[in-house]
Design goal:
Oligomer: homodimer
Shape of chain A: globular
Strand order of the largest sheet of chain A: 1-2
Structural class of chain A: mainly alpha
Number of helices of chain A: 9
Largest interface: A-B, 90 and 91 residues
Number of domains of chain A: 1
Helix content of chain A: 55-70%
Radius of gyration of chain A: 21 Å
Number of strands of chain A: 2
Strand content of chain A: under 5%
Largest sheet of chain A: 2 strands, antiparallel
Chain lengths: 209, 209
DNA sequence: ATGATTGGATAGTTGTACTCTCCAATATTA
DNA sequence: TAATATTGGAGAGTACAACTATCCAATCAT
């Protein structure tokens, strides 16, 4: 399969595929001559993944590249790789910074939840940032709500982890892509559940089942 | 309070505050003369909200404007207003489109969950889009996982709705801002829960409680 | 043999989110 | 009261991201 066929298959302009090649999101095809290279379904699958990450997931090209690189070469420390991969996902919280207690809100929250955490883990900064934003906007999160959300998150995590493949490479792919791809699903479901509950409570005619 | 004081208070350049005024994210101050206007804490709170929406929540300026307008002037149909507000939040799924069954995956999923839904509701398109992305990327969501996520979402929605203010204006603000501001919290908690579960299972030394 | 296609590089386009510069009118300060 | 600083408002300018278009000489298909 040549580049034009690959692009057509993926429904993208050739110029865009070339752009992804340049940016390192797509591995180069096997060169069959100075001006020809061949691509296979592996490349097609990758292209679809790139579109999923830059589209619905909302990653920038650079973030997608970072995530894909980690999936491609996980390194031998599974734990560190997963941490780094999640750090590459939006939203980006400010980095660890300076102070003795850089994440006061997140620390308090996690202690309250009785959760183990690594202060270097990017999600801690993300949590701090999100909690601060809610506060700044005048809608701070109550302890009770935090506990509720935390419990739900823990349930889902337990479920997901049970299904994680044993083999390290597959485990990284599963976790990283699972985080990136399933989060939008969870958010959409939450929004729809809000609507469902609202309709049942407020009583409204329009919706159909 | 004049514009420079407002900007200083919010930690922003004056030019940026002017930009938000131009873009209609911030309501103009009360003009005290041809070249002076005065702002109060109301404006400051709004400015913080704008930063929360364009920062951690990840809205573009236009999306933030759309959300804020709905919060400001909810219209008399609470249900429609909430639907429109959620539609203004990312990620944007393609619009209803054409075909007889524009959202096959989402429809199947919601039927499976036994949920009431309005096909015109933006979150349906978002769900369709997210499910399609997961499929395209080679990690389709199983029925079982969907059920699990759906149940978690329903629990959270029930909790949130119970706490929704009665007064319509306040209800819109609560729902819209709650969606925008609490979603990042939920995602961060999910990521941290993954790590927590992983550590407990895989056994790892570094993290602290 | 001849027109189309390719990889590779460079430049151009579009859109977003600011940021800067001006200006005359006002406010503050000396 | 005179000199200096600040303001609101408008328009232009900047920086970056994500493509998109153009070239080119080397192949490839017919």
């Amino acid at each position: 399969m040549r580049i034009s066929a690959l692009a057509a298959e993926a429904g993208l302009p050739v110029a865009t595929v070339k752009y992804y090649l340049r940016e390192g999101l797509l591995q180069p095809g096997i060169a069959t001559s100075a001006t020809q290279a061949s691509y296979d379904e592996h490349h097609l699958r990758r292209l679809r993944l790139v579109r999923a990450l830059t589209g619905p997931v909302g990653l920038s090209v650079q973030q997608a590249r970072a995530v894909l690189q980690l999936v491609d070469e996980p390194g031998d420390d599974l734990y560190a790789t997963l941490g780094r991969a999640v750090g590459a996902l939006p939203p980006e919280g400010a980095e660890p910074a300076e102070a003795s207690d850089p994440f006061p809100r997140a620390r308090a929250a996690l202690e309250e939840l009785g959760q183990v955490y690594d202060p270097g883990f990017a999600a801690v900064a993300q949590l701090e940032c999100a909690l601060a934003a809610a506060e700044d906007a005048g809608m701070p999160i109550t302890r009770e709500r935090l506990a509720r959300y935390g419990r739900a998150a823990a349930d889902l995590a337990a479920y997901d982890l049970e299904r994680m493949p044993r083999e390290p490479h597959a485990a990284v792919e599963y976790t990283v892509l699972g985080t990136a791809l399933y989060e939008p699903v969870l958010l959409a479901l939450r929004r729809l559940a809000h609507q469902d509950v609202a309709v049942r409570r407020l009583g409204r005619a329009r919706p159909v089942e």
